[in-house]
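Lab meeting notes turned into a lecture example. A postdoc, R.K., suggested we walk through two folding results consecutively so the class can see how the record format repeats. The first protein's sequence and structure tokens come next.
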Amino acid sequence: MKHDNQFQFARSQYLDQVMLLQAQIDDFSYSKHAHEEYSFGVTLAGRQDFFSSGAFHRSLPGNIIVFNPGEVHDGHSGTNDALRYRMVYIHPGQLEPMLMAAGVKSSRDFQITDNLIHDSLLRRHILNLAELIEQQDNKLQQECELYQLAARVAQRYGQYSPDRIVQRVDRLLLKARDYIHDNLMTEISLDDISQQASLSKYHFLRMFRQQYGITPHQYIINCRINKAREALEQGSCLEDIVFDCGFSDLSHLNRRFKPIYGMTPRQYQQHFSGK
């Protein structure tokens, strides 16, 4: 039986760092990974099974899937039927100012508390924005639709206040996270990172895994993959990307990249170049 896994990416020409994924999956399974962006998806057909935030979820047609930046998840088709879905990726730099404009007082590092949502209005805004990106309709339309999406999120989650435990973890880990991003291309040790959080190495490791669902090393690899993806979209030389993003060789990058994006880095770059 022939399996048909399709992944079509489109970047908005008008909204910086906003991207659409249209996917059809038969037998492909996403490895654990995380994105730098907020991810808003709608299941169109089949059933989308995934693990995130310490729980297993099943998304049926019409359901909304949401991942916060850095939120680790996997995913696969939950039935023998093909899974189809659309996912819009929105960088915090785009979404957070609109959340603030919509009434969220503290929009930096804003967290949406649900991974699986039933909301017809939010679903409509996600699909409308996806269609506008696909058709590359004018900037004003895309900005208005993005604001309406943000406004609906603010309406549902604007009063969210992290509990004491989350606040405590964030205080200790944000410096460590920023240190990782500032030193992404250097060889940093667990000792180096844990010192930024003023925690013992193993206490830090336990808290980091509890917060992000992966180890600091896996987090670094994920950040490097995100950096490689951006360079691929910009048309950079593949051989340069391999070493500029901290991978030992192209095979190493391929092994890390394909389980997340469903294609090799070269195929991903060709997709954006139209070749």
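The second example is placed directly after the first for contrast:
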Amino acid sequence: MELHWVTTFLAIVDNRGFGRAAELLHCSQPTVSNHVAALERELGASLLHRNRRPVELTQAGMAFLPHARALAREVEAARGSVAEVLGLRRGTVTLGAYASATAGYVPDLLESFHAQYPGVTVQLLEARADDLARAALSGQIELMLRPTTPPLSEATFSSKPLWRERYQVVLHPAHPLAEQAGALPLEALAEHELIMTGHGELASPDHPLWHHLGRYPELAYEVTQPQSLIELVRHGLGVGVTNELSLNVSATDGLDIRDIDSAVAYRDVAVWWLRGRTHSPAARALLAFIRESPRPPGLTRLD
């Protein structure tokens, strides 16, 4: 089995097509097809449904995928171990992050990291918290920046707390709640239709904030991007509730931002990785860098 066959297979899976894989690998599409055909002959099974758009894995392909990722990681680790002997001159690590961390923390992090490790490539995957966990389990990412809610299994994942951020309210200035001064009581907030971010997070009835309240408020809209929430509020379509970092990096001019008067109106964010998995030198370097890096401005550092 040739390594470049496996690399090509992973490029197709991650980019959901032969054409995009060919672009990223800087080769022709027939070459990509030939690599996969050779791999399938070696394994004695078809790995991809070629007649579907986007391309999908067969059952044999799904069975082979985790082994392909493990093989790619081991090769990268081998290269990195040699590089570590010579000084960390090259390597690749994949980092996952949720949207507001990508906007409010990752750019400064990567700028500083690249200055110290110019030969190390950091590949970035932005996704929702629950999708990040699945990406880590499949081997698509090595490290992830993710809130501690919804919780992950401590038997499967290790983590290092990074910062604490408040949940905050976004109000249209004409909304009745805007007439109240200061932080808003959770009970008063729950009397209104809410716009919330985060599938499986704030918008979930299982979130600790709503458990503390004792009931789940009426949900007007659930969105994935903070700016979508802000624009819905701007048009008078509800009261927004989201995390502090997302508002720090969004255009909230003309809107009223308030804290929530509740002892549980916050969340913690951590860097996560799969327990027991051997990290490449590049991943170890990035993890150490994240642990020591400055946190986003205005947020509480957790050590």
